[in-house]
Amino acid sequence: MAKRLAIIEKDSWLEPVEDELNLRYKLFTDRLTDINRSSGSIVDYANGYRYFGWQRDERNRGWWFREWLPAAWEVYIFGDFNGWERTSLPLFKNAQTGVWSIFLADRDYNIAHGSLYKILVVGENGTHERIPAWTRRAVQDDTTKDFTAQFWNPTEQFDWRGDQFRVDRTEGLFIYECHIGMAQEKEGVGTYTEFADNVLPRIKAAGYNAIQIMGIAEHPYYGSYGYHVSSFFAPSSRFGTPEELKALVRKAHDMNIAVIMDIVHAHYVKNFAEGLNGIDGSDTCYSLAGDAGYQQYWDSKIFDYGKREVMHFLLSNVKYWIDEFHFDGYRFDGVTSMLYYHHGYTDFDCREKYFDAGVYRDAITYLTLANRLVHDLRPDAVTIAEDVSGMPGICVPTEEGGIGFDYRLGMGIPDFWIKMLKEVPDDKWNVWDIWNVMTNRGNNTPTIAYCESHDQAMVGDKTIAFRLMDKEMYSSMNIGSQNLAIDRGMALHKMIRLCTASLGGQAYLNFMGNEFGHPEWIDFPRLGNDWSYKYARRQWSLVDNKDLRYHQLGEFDRAMINMLVRHNQIGQGYAGQLAMFDGDQVMVYHHGDVVYVFNWNPNRSVPDYVIPVPEEGVYRIILSTDEERFGGYERNELHTDHHSFTRKDDDGQVRNYLRIYNVCRTATVYRKVR
Hints:
This protein is of the alpha/beta class. Helices cover about 25% and strands about 20% of the residues. The chain has an 8-stranded parallel β-barrel, surrounded by 4 helices. Strands 22-23-24-30-26-27 form a 6-stranded antiparallel beta sheet. Strands 3, 6, 7, 8 and 9 form a 5-stranded antiparallel beta sheet that branches. The longest helix is centred in the N-terminal third of the chain and has 22 residues, at about 20-40.
């Protein structure tokens, strides 16, 4: 009898679907075996970027150019190196592989660094000028707004010597989600260099040990946030050069900050001129034909993950960014859309929804291979799944029968906080609801907790700060102001963050500016706002101004991260529940000898409130959301020693307790000091 997969041995709930899990594992291992047989390893297999596109041939002194276009009838390359003659340089097709190629000798053509070029493809859909799929740089003309491929071969290659950075997750990941273009205060597009010089020092000072960067791969429409990718191997030229991106990564590493790329393999832009759509004259080059190759909810094209050449393209893309740019891992966007033919638009209310005909097995195989590739290439690298469905095995290692991600985003947490703020009066907040949502994750599903990301900051939605304080943020955020809405908003903003970070997962994520309650939404330039950059930026001057409460929120976030790291709080896994006083709206839990007391009640402060503690000893406050430096009223004496005492409970057990002043709408953190 064949040995049972570890994923099933560890979770009896999966026994009824064992056959399907065995099939998924077989599809993965069969493909991996085939890859190993043909290439030696999956790491060596994923070298497409070293074969396709421009490749130097020193022996023959020239350049090869290759592109996979199986359905094309004729293919030509042209550019400034041949006077833009469209049909003077034909490529030749390998009928077996569908790869077109041409060799251009140095003696005949001067293909200089910075040269512009395109390919001309003749096929069933006509004759069209296209940007090659494997191009490493695409630039936009300021006047015509057209994108063109650019030959990129600087004389001096970037010097990576000495970059030995490795991701250390022992104290947990604290991820600062960011976007290069909108990271500056100016009204315009920020650059890689400006981000490295101006924003990385802020992130380091705030205590975050990782950044997650959106919008890296080239995308024609800035307002897509980088999620409608056109050129998968080209870092966006609107932010600067590839070398400037490499310098950003290098500088982050020098600061001991990991750099995670938001990689978009769930779909690609449907634009004909810039992207992959119909590139070989058919609609089946990178996608399935017709509606099966279209993501109607995102108005974009879907990859055909079952096609070997497409899988090779995507796996090569995974290796490329780590190999060439030293990224430390990926947050895979849109995983739910990839996993299901219905793209996740259903209620996952039973086990069968994860294992029925709605599941896209080829996508599961691809994601499992991608995770194996990342971890074989860089064992310390991080992979994160943006999956709202809760697919079983998403974070189980590939060798155990899982898909192999390191983390899953806790996407239900921000939805919960929004619902609470919109629908539930403060005095009705239920501590059991909070606890259950924060801890609703499997033991085998490491989760990244967050109370809001860039999604909640977009125009049309609201950040937590905006939901709490709304227009009052424009007039009453000076420190001397007296405003009940601001007081409430500041208090809950801090409590929600501390609760989420300390209770919700094994890592924590924040979107840039949200930590200090950035007052405005994100709205990229578009026709509807007269192409304005006013809301596509971050106003750092607000948090820098010590006369404003934004500064106090920023200081709290810094202190919170520092406390969580210093005492290795989220690195310890699940918190231990100590007490839930639902009538008082009070919850008490701990990580080791650090005890958290949350009093969500809007107005009931109680002296001599008795709470349980895990150990006998002397406890002292190490953090309070009510501290004056954070905009609170400091109603607790911060340096008072709280001596534990014992008492026998109704069940006959003797337990340790503290008496505290339990301040309303405040979270207080105690630690045993002796």
